[in-house]
Amino acid sequence: MSHLQQTFDISEFQKLLDTAMAAVQARPVGFSVAAIASALGGYSLKRLLAPSAYSNLDGPPRKDFVYGHLKEIVMPYNIAFHDSLQDTYGSVSKVYGTFGSEHLFVSDPRFMHEVLVKEADTVFRHMQYFYDMNNATFGPGLISSADAESGVYCEAYEILIADDMKQAMIKDLGGTRSKEIDMLRWCSSTALELIGTAGIGHSFGILHGVESEYSDAIKNYFPALAQIAPMRSLFPAIYRMGPSWLQEKLAEWAPSAAIREMKHIVDVQERQAQDILSQKKKALDSADKSKDMNDIMSVLLKANMEAREEDRLPEDQLLGQMNTLIFAGHETTSGALTRTLHLLASHTAIQDRLRAELQETSGSLSYDELNALPYLDALCREVLRLYTPSPYIERVALKDWLVPLKYPVKGKDGSLISEIHVRKGTKIYVSIKEANRSRETWGEDADEFKPERWLGELPQSVADARTPGIYSSMMTFSGGPRSCIGFKFSILEMKIVLSTLVKSFKFAPGSVDIDWLACIVRTPYTAGTKDVFAEGSNQPRSSPMNHLNAAHELVEETVACGNIQRQDTYLGLRVASLFIILATSIFGASFPVLASRLQIFSEHKSVFEGAKYFGSGVIIATAFIHLLAPAVEKLGSACLKGVWEEYPWAPAMAMVSVFGIFFVELAAFRLGTAKLDSLGIKGYHNHGTTQTSSVKDNAGGLMPASEVPTTATKSTGSSDSELGLKEQLSLQNGITESALAQLLGVAILEFGVVFHSVLIGMTLAVDEDFIVLFIVLIFHQMFEGLGLGTRLASLDLPKSYQSWVPYAGALLYGLTTPVGIAAGLGIPGTFDSISAGILLYTGLVELLAHEFIFNPAMHRAPIGKLLYACIMMVLGAGIMALIGRWA
């Protein structure tokens, strides 16, 4: 009987099951919705009927049963809500999550120590969706594994990128002294380059104009993640829904634009990581290349390759570590840098004080030197304290636990609560921001931006709080085993960039006001933005047209004012440069003279002709490139105030110099002519056809004076004997008018060149980039000396002058730059302007005009000779102008 009853029961149950399955197959959507609704209804009823775990703990009233306070806490406009929780309810308050769940919002130091340090990972750990989401986006890495340890220490790297950032910003200024530019763009690019170079040994090239899809993807990660934050509790279930290819398809088909954007970000990141990993593996196969690969990722790969087969990390974990390094070192640091510059733009007194401290230093600073700058250190600490990039972190209780409080809070019944019985499953929001602005810890001025607080003694309450943060008693980099592993690198990065930029630029507020909203990390948006997730919000935030994310500052290029700080590096080589440049300069200026005297190239006069014309080009390029351009820059310096700001003094001084030299030459010629007239010597006209003996009329141009043929044209009414007598008298009385003209022209040239050479020596004595400048100036002095030497060699002087004047000129030129090096000081802006005028007049009038326009020999010269002269002149000017890129 029992057997028959059992058979009957099974068959009846099977019929009911078949009927139910048929109904589900007929209306699958309806039954699915009904099942989900029933489950949610049951869960909600359970939440409503369950007694409160924190009945006496105060907090804001619940407005929405479905979302609770979730939107106020995690959505971008949450900062004011966080502040109100701290100010109204104290260091611990109760907030509501989805469907009536109770959460804790915490900033109490002792509570944070229990959660983050003492019972980390055993009682309190990250939410499961934190691990699942990071594993899906970055791969298995330090922040995507519950078992990961923060054993990687991020050593400080030398300055690699900051100067590139400065140069990119100068280029962005477009030649103007002041312009509004997007600082978020440059800070983000610089942070990515720094962590790319130091972390994985790869440059993305963004600061040099290379477009990077990866850069745009990683910058859009947090905005996209913030958009789906309210749904993140569902992620663990979705993450385990079938194989990875199915999850990818579901992401592609998702109706949410944010989910599709996240899928795109993951794809871009994975492709880039695969390419970089392949390149690094190939490089490590080469012993020559691998020995110089000292970035964090290369060290990890080397260790992995040397490990036993069973101990090696699989490729997906290597990719995960790489993505984690880039992600962790990029977004928060770029936000902190942008925030600091935004604060400096609004607090000019703080900016000026920082600049004054930085201008007392010179050159690139080491890690220890950067940390020895007290105000720079105080500024970084205060920015990181008051404006922490991440407002909060999350943990969940794995079991019931009793947690003590440092600062007791008042319960609903008026009693003081000094410990909290945390129930298993409770989500805990650890508020980094509120812990850093706690008046109980930091004093009544905790909300004020005061870098100087770090220059003196902090309140005793800071030490008494025993905040578990790993950096300077603040929670910015969290605490415990899961604190930020690269915080020292992040701080160093801030100091390097700030020390470079604030020295070179002044920052002022842009034309658009900025609000800092929390898309997981705090990000700048145009003030008044109502919907950060509106159409276009996932565009690259560096785009100037994207007003949803912008941190535009008015940037003005500046210079260091005050006394020039002598650079003591390479002191031995600086001393040696006295003698090296002395020898080079004398050789360059004396070689044409010696070659002319010894007739080394007597059968190849074209060599000297080429050198002469080459030298003319060198002198003209020196005037324009090496003198006038730097003079315009120096006399237009922001350090010069008053009348210096109101007029273009550099070209004005050059113009006055031109006229001054012209009047000096005119007066000298008149005096010389009067003297020759008194001796009965007539007939010389420098720009006409009647000339006495002149080296400028002979084809060789650099023949010895004794071999230069005398050519003279008779004046009307003059006999041969009369002309011969006048020539004889001129030689007997010392020096001809032609020789006087040459002497005067070379003297003017020598004065301009000498003046410039002294200043070059001064620059070499104090310039920071000594090595490059030293090499360039050796060539600079050689070419300029050749230009001067060819003119000295071409002088047609009486023997009493011919024997020593050219050598004296070469020696004087050789001595000037070493004298300038020894002096190491001066006012080169004004002197360069005067020297530019001298050399412009000499080059254009004394050399080009006399050599080409007023020289009858050149009028009748073959076209080949004229073309040769022009090519050599342009070549000399071109090479000297190219050297001007460095000198």
Polypeptide structure, described:
- The chain has 887 residues and is α+β, with helices and mostly antiparallel strands.
- It folds into three domains: 45 residues; 416 residues, Cytochrome P450 (Cytochrome p450, Orthogonal Bundle); 279 residues, no CATH class.
- Helices cover 58% and strands 8% of the residues.
- The protein contains 34 helices and twelve strands.
- The strands form four sheets. Strands 1-2-8-5-3 form a five-stranded mixed β-sheet, with helices on both faces. A three-stranded antiparallel β-sheet has the order 4-12-9.
- β10 and β11 form a beta hairpin.
- The longest helix is centred in the middle third of the chain and has 32 residues.
- 40% of the residues are buried.
- Pfam families: p450, Zip.
- It comes from Thanatephorus cucumeris (strain AG1-IB / isolate 7/3/14) (Lettuce bottom rot fungus).
Instruction: Write the CATH homologous superfamily of the largest domain.
Output: Cytochrome P450
Total number of helices: 34
CATH level 1 name of the largest domain: Mainly Alpha
Percent helix among the residues? Answer: 55-70%
How are strands sequenced across the largest beta sheet?
A: 1-2-8-5-3
CATH topology of the largest domain: Cytochrome p450
- The count of DSSP E runs of length 2 or more, i.e. the number of strands, is 12
Going by CATH, the architecture of the largest domain would be Orthogonal Bundle
Strand content: 5-15%
> Overall mean pLDDT score?
73
Radius of gyration: 40 Å
The low-confidence runs, each spanning 5 or more residues with pLDDT under 50, are 1-6, 142-160, 535-550, 559-568, 681-735, 765-769
What composes the largest sheet? 5 strands, mixed
Distance between the first and last residues' Cα: 112 Å
Pfam family, one: Zip
Protein name: Rhizoctonia solani AG1-IB WGS project CAOJ00000000 data, isolate 7/3/14, contig 19614
Keywords: Heme, Iron, Membrane, Metal-binding, Monooxygenase, Oxidoreductase, Transmembrane, Transmembrane helix
Cofactor: heme
